[in-house]
Amino acid sequence: MLEVEGVTTRYGELTAVDDVSLTVADGELFCLLGPSGCGKSTVLRTIAGFEEPASGDISIRGTDITGRPPHQRDCSIVFQDWALFPHKTALENVAFGLKMQGVDAAERRERAQEALDLVEVGSQAEAAPDELSGGQRQRVALARSLTVDPDLLLLDEPLSNLDRRLRESMQIELKDIQRRLETTMVYVTHDQNEAFTLADRLGVMNDGELVQVGDPGTVYDDPKSRFVEAFLGSTNFVPCRVVAVEEQPILAAPFGVRFQAPIDAGSLAQDDTIVVSLRPERLDLNPAAEVAARAVEDGGVATDEVSVPCAVVETIRRGSSVRIRLSAEETDLFVEVPVEEGIDMTAGDTVALQWATDDAVYFAETGERCR
Questions:
Q1: Sheet holding 350-356: strands in order across?
Q2: pLDDT (tens digit per residue) in 258-269
Q3: Which residues have CB under 8 Å from 358's CB, separation 6+?
Q4: pTM to 2 decimal places
Q5: Which residues contact 310 (CB under 8 A, 6 or more apart)?
Q6: What domains can be seen in the chain, in order of their start residue?
Q7: Listed residue (312, 293, 302) closest to 355, CA to CA
Q8: Which residues in the chain come in under a pLDDT of 50?
Q9: Do 84 and 131 touch, CB atoms closer than 8 A?
Q10: Among residues 205, 325, 226, which one has the least CA distance to residue 276?
């Protein structure tokens, strides 16, 4: 459906998008995910024709649209601020694109009403935008884009102005609408949870570059870089020193544990630093003090599972889960557990923190993934 090949977009001397290539399949919902200022909205605006690329090509259904103006690209865009006409009713806002296409008044009214009904605000057809809630205005903006039946729908953080509860509800509804209509969508967001909820595939951007593309589960479980690992959720980064170089390196953690990392030693040398990522959901806690006391054997090297004695610093209730802050010889760590597992732990308790070496992710000091 969509092919972006080697696109670079600049604002004067600033390179906002640097040699980005991606493809989006027919009927797919593709999310561009990244921090503010990474270039994701510029990619969307370049696809839409609002920005001119310095180099590269854009095709929809095999047709090169790179030099075409926005209204000749058969795509529609929903902006972050929804951009509704304040002096027009919801129905008139939705029908506006059809009017520009020359559709007669009766047909455009019928199609606009159908689009409003589809997004469940049909009863608000005669309301002005300032009479609608934020969620209703977002639905009207979505209906306006859908009613012109675009080949490609582009959405630039359309839910970011909604409160959390409504935003999460609209994510589910938007995904349902996309599946029913089989509309191809490119969706820009900085919210990892939103991308995971919506995306068939996602692309992570940083500093104008597309650094990884894949389905959400694969990108989360198999990040290519420390940036991707850090951006896609909370984790514990522990810098470890290489103390022996064998087929697989032996690492020394700052809290006194040595373990064999299941990665290729490759060009590693003694005293190199490997940063180990320990996702909180992949860590186990055993509150038994006697287990913690014998968790580390002097001079031993863990191979399959690492066990570290820790002190509980504090417990923080986070809805249905508890974040437990730990200290292992002045190294701060944290674990997330269900409420029922964390309520008996208090500051000062001794626990054993355990993880499988295969469940950790390893990065070189440069940020590249170690395999």
A1: 284-286, 350-356, 305-318, 321-328, 331-338
A2: 999 999 988 899
A3: 262, 304
A4: 0.88
A5: 292, 326, 327, 328, 333, 350, 351, 352, 353
A6: 2-230 (3.40.50.300), 234-364 (2.40.50.100)
A7: 302
A8: 292-298
A9: no
A10: 226
